[in-house]
Amino acid sequence: AGRAQPVRATWSSGDTAIVAIGADGQLVGRMAGSTVVWAHQGPDSIAASVSVTPGVRGTVAALAEPAPIAD
Question: Which of 13, 37, 57, 71 gives a 20 to 30 Å CA spacing to 28?
Answer without folding.
Answer: 71
